[in-house]
Amino acid sequence: MGKKYSLRVPGQYARIRDVCRFVRDGAAAAGFDEDELFRLELACDEACTNVIEHAYGGENQGELTISYQVNGNLFEITIVDNGRAFTPEQIKKPDIPQSADEAEKLKVGGLGLHIIRQVMDSIEYTFIPGRNELVMGKEIPGAAG
Fold it and tell me: Are 116 and 135 contacting, i.e. CB atoms less than 8 angstroms apart?
């Protein structure tokens, strides 16, 4: 395993940009191209937004600790919070419209976990009383495992 880099921020929507920049810098150093960097930032943004919105029930209710490290051929992003427990397996896949004609059926919100599942190669969630931990992994392009 490579060195682990960590950042702790208050649970505020305005700080998500800092988190995404932190993760992007690490992912760029690991060799991801611009398209993958965008996807990693998107997954990170969605995960942090979900923590603030659902685990904490709003801003300024707790902190997020974000870390990343290279683990073999995997770039791992870990997000830890002390909010309410979450069971990702119970979240159903959203009903995504298949055409522009159906776009009005799309609800605002509810796509975060779907986006994360589409973007990342692995997702692991653990809850220990008082602590949520989400580990998202993305294969590093050209890395030997």
Answer: no
